[in-house]
Amino acid sequence: MNKDPENTRTKIMNAAESIILDKGFGGTTVSNVIEEAGVSKGAFFHHFSSKAELGEELVQRYADQDAEHLEQTLVKAEGLSDDPLQQLLIFIKLFEQEIESLEEPFPGCLFASYLQQSELFDHKILEIIRESMLLWRTRVLDKLKKIEQKHHPRQDVNLQSLADMLMVIFEGSFVLSQSLNENKVIAQQLSNYHSYLQLLFDSSN
Amino acid sequence: MNKDPENTRTKIMNAAESIILDKGFGGTTVSNVIEEAGVSKGAFFHHFSSKAELGEELVQRYADQDAEHLEQTLVKAEGLSDDPLQQLLIFIKLFEQEIESLEEPFPGCLFASYLQQSELFDHKILEIIRESMLLWRTRVLDKLKKIEQKHHPRQDVNLQSLADMLMVIFEGSFVLSQSLNENKVIAQQLSNYHSYLQLLFDSSN
């Protein structure tokens, strides 16, 4: 008898996420997941009715963790300065430091992995991903609007696309970092974004 | 008898590329490709010994086209100004205009698609992708080094990571554009990169 069902469930999900980031959802089988997680086929189907259900729960968990990470980092940055520009610059620095402190290469983004095989997923799953990206847009855009009230941008800029640029830099850096096997790409690109925001809004530069 | 073998070959490759961009390489079967291309199984295996061989030839073709596109756009930009900063700014604008003029949504990047399933590919294929990304790095970095000799950057900047940022913006924009179903993301992000370079190097800003 399984005394720790939640642990088994988490083990299956972690194993599946890791395999999907290497092989894609389409290339991942239930057998792969069972083997990697070290659980029985019975245990797998006790927790998930199908690979499709696992796929949906994985992306929902990923989206929840992503949103929590975003909010926590934003709250932390807001606690370190009263100025919205400094808050956003600190927010980016916190991600930069976090990524620099990782010992393992960054494993990639489950959203991007799913989107590369979007034909395999239903509308509900693609909507979870879309909502996650819109959350980043909204949160960063709110901050940029406050920044614009205090700091006149040195160039005309579309604030929404400037907000999107953070997500773009994350996603693009994951691709380049993986291809070149250079882990530092992500932190370097965040640093470029930081520098761009300073040049745009920080009159002391 | 097939009177136009080159055309059949191209038809197969175009169909395969399009399906792989939707489903991933792992989720694409020879049957899918045959059906989409409207060719016989015999014709397929006359041209390709396996799906793996097709996968390799596809990425090689994509890399060749990508390199040619890069060089042609660079030559065009170099013909429009003598100043290296203006050349790079024009180079980015040319991509921006090209993407804005597309009637169909941008189909995505075959490199990113392959990298999301990197376990399915051998070293040779991953090396083709790596070399393509390094070519972009080298070409843009060469230009940035010439810019730096004439224009002192307004902030400390790592020129290599600034060169990489163009590829990062392309790849990240493809992800965001696909998820949000907003085609304009790519041109907007190229415009942000353009603005960042101006702020860094153009003293008239």
From TrEMBL, chains A, B:
The HTH tetR-type domain, residue ranges: 6-66
SUPFAM superfamilies linked: Homeodomain-like, Tetracyclin repressor-like, C-terminal domain
Top-level taxon in the UniProt lineage: Bacteria
Keyword Transcription regulation: yes
Segments of the chain annotated as binding DNA: 29-48
Keyword Hydrolase in record: no
Stored Pfam families: TetR_N (PF00440)
Entry keyword set: DNA-binding, Transcription, Transcription regulation
PANTHER family linked to this entry: HTH-TYPE TRANSCRIPTIONAL REGULATOR YJDC, TRANSCRIPTIONAL REGULATORY PROTEIN
Full protein name: TetR/AcrR family transcriptional regulator
Biological source species: Fodinibius salicampi
